[in-house]
What we know:
It is built from 26 helices and no strands. By secondary structure, the chain is an all-alpha fold. Helix 4 (178-212) runs antiparallel to helix 18 and helix 5 (216-242) runs parallel beside helix 11 (316-332).
Amino acid sequence: MNAPYDGDRGQGADGAGSSGGPPMPPGPGQVPPTPDPYLQTAYDHDPYRSQDLSVQDPVTEALYDRAAHPPPPPGTYQQPQPLYQQPPVAQYAPDPRIWAQTPPPEPDGPSRYLPYGDDPVTTQFVGVDDLVSQASQDHEQPDAFAHLFRDQEGPAGSSPVPAQPEPAPAPAPPKSGGRASGLLKSSAVMAAGTLVSRLTGFVRSLVITAALGAALLGDSFTIAYTLPTMIYILTVGGGLNSVFVPQLVRSMKDDEDGGEAYANRLLTLVMVALGVIVAIAVFAAPWLIHMMSPTIAGDAAANSVAVTFARYCLPTIFFMGVHVVMGQILNARGRFGAMMWTPVLNNIVMIFTFGMFIWVYGTSAESQMGVQTIPPEGVRLLGIGTLLGLVVQALAMVPYLREAGFRFRPRFDWKGHGLGKTIKLAKWTVLFVLANQAGVLVVTQLATSAGKLSGKDGTGILAYSNAQLIWGMPQAIITVSVMAALLPRISRAAHDDDPGAVRDDISQGLRNSAVAIVPVAFMFLALGLPMCTLLYASAGTEAARSMGFILMAFGLGLIPYSVQYVVLRGFYAYEDTRTPFYNTVIVAAVNAAASALCYVVLPAQWAVVGMAASYGLAYAVGVGIAWRRLRNRLGGDLDGAHVVRTYARLCLAAIPAAVLGGGVGFAVLLGLGEGAFGSLVALICGGAVLLGVFFIAAKRMRIEEINGMVGMVRGRLGR
């Protein structure tokens, strides 16, 4: 990198120094300084220097945004024009469809076709390991122009200027690892918190299934437990999760107080609205249970238990909303970990509560407890423990807010401060979740009816929910964590009207999440049976096998489900909530129609398995529609060729891995049985074969995202 020496630093575009102003004539009695040949301006003869900002200063050149000013495509670079001759004017404007195309892969070893005219002899190739592990390190470089300071001193023999006392050095700013390093750190913190939360959630579902079983009692509690979440999402949850993050980011950027007043108004409004919703929901609990499942409402004992559970669980709506608003305030301030870690406390409280229930009454297999035999004290214990878990989860956010400098002060001046615009945007999001929950409601009614008609354990809504919990874990750990860190950045790019940056971030989120989502989806398809027979062995072999088949049916639907989640973030960044609504209406309609068809056509024992497959089919239809609309929104370019190529190659690597891994797991189950030990051995052996074959195939296919993931992991391990 050619850079001017220190004498040229601070010069303007015309070569005149700007640090000391124009040269002053020597005063009376002063000897004019001897002209220094080193101080001649070397760029005065270049008429184009004022147009090329990247050659004026080494720091400017290092920070020069080449993405905004890309180089010409290969084969179109013109030879430099002679001096003092204007270059010809281009006939057409630069076409992004030409220069934005993905370049061909570089050959192994140093290449003489390096970008920006770099010399292959002096170019140092840095691997992903070094980029990740050394991203936050600052390396001081020696000043190559230090010797020129001697040439800039006064003439020989002049008296030295007395040294001025140096001011106290300013405190060094905190080190920053840059954009990529910050994203990796934020994603890692959120992924770790989500992983622990999901793992404890697994334990919670295991304890609930062991305590209540997978029959009508378990379905009754599942209906009551999911009812608050459904009401919360239908009322304010959708808007809080998707609309208010961009609004908070904009208020922090535009408001003088950094968005604190806006956040206080939002939190106050949400608390008041949720308080009213909770009061209405508790009063209408019997009607809500009937709406969720006419099958359970038609059984007097099951309806009584479900209504009692619901009235304990419905106040959690208030604490869900408070927790989400606090978490979004922290996310807008760059604090991503608290929202992912505090749900662990809720899971711990619930695990302790259901553990006490098992300690007092025994497991469902031992007590054979049902809706007619469960004691009121047991219902009260489980209800209070469920409510207490959400209370602890919400209150745990307060210390994080205080650490971030946020102090909650209730504000009721809601009018004229931007909340009306936010509520208007959230209108479409509420319709979005309304359509989504309508599909969930249909599936809930059909699943509970199929479970009662089949007369077998593990064929109702509890089995469906448990399999979906396992299936959704990679989505929550990987995709949600990556996009939670990218969403504020995408929102800023959309606010700055930079569709190229939005496209690049969405493409990055899709490809980075696909590295783990694709093989895990095929793993569910190949090894879903030993997974469930291992995790839910306490519910009985019959129920565990049924859950395994449901998980296998969910399997491949994880891929379109993850893609849909990422693509919709692009619409939310542009404050477009209408398009996701229309897209979700289509998804919910396809899911409900296909589930109803499975309920009518398939035997009751297999109806829920068909409903699980319908879920993935519905999202596959939705992805095609959402992708086309977002591509048109971004000017016809969504980096589709790069994304599709990545997913296609990952699927090609995962198919033989799933066949071999599933075959090994099935053979082990035949040899050792479907008990806990046989399921564990089958899962370990089949999973090792599947991951090993997938990794080898992906490396042979030169999938660059695999190398990036491996480098990130090795960098985190310090290798």
